[in-house]
Amino acid sequence: GLIQLDQPEESLRYLYYLRQNDPGDKMSIDLMAKVNEVIRLKKQYITEPENIQLINRLAAYYLFTGNLHEAKKYIDRAMVIEPGNRNSKEYLKIHNASNDHNQKTMH
Computed from CA positions of residues 100, 78, 80, 47, in that sequence, does the dihedral angle turn out positive or negative? Predict the structure, then answer.
């Protein structure tokens, strides 16, 4: 849904609603923490566009949520800044494997 569409602020409203109706729901609590983190990271990225650790964390988040397009954007950025970065290379492998899997299941 909204997380995959890269609308973390909108998804947060929905998660708050879920949390009010079921305060003990561990999944929504964990997801809220992740969404809050990505909102913070994206704001930080604006002021630190060369921060490789930050970029890799954003790439990992988008891989985790299945938003391969956004993940690839951050992976590509990381590879430009530091082509030999081990984490970036690993995220690229994960991205390509996920993308290949998605394309096979679509045909």
Answer: positive
Give the span between the Cα atoms of 88 and 57, in whole angstroms.
10
- Between CA 78 and CA 76 the distance in angstroms is 5
Distance CA 89, CA 16 (A): 35
Q: What is the pLDDT of residues 24-78, one digit of tens each?
A: 878 777 888 888 888 899 999 999 999 999 999 999 999 988 889 999 999 999 9
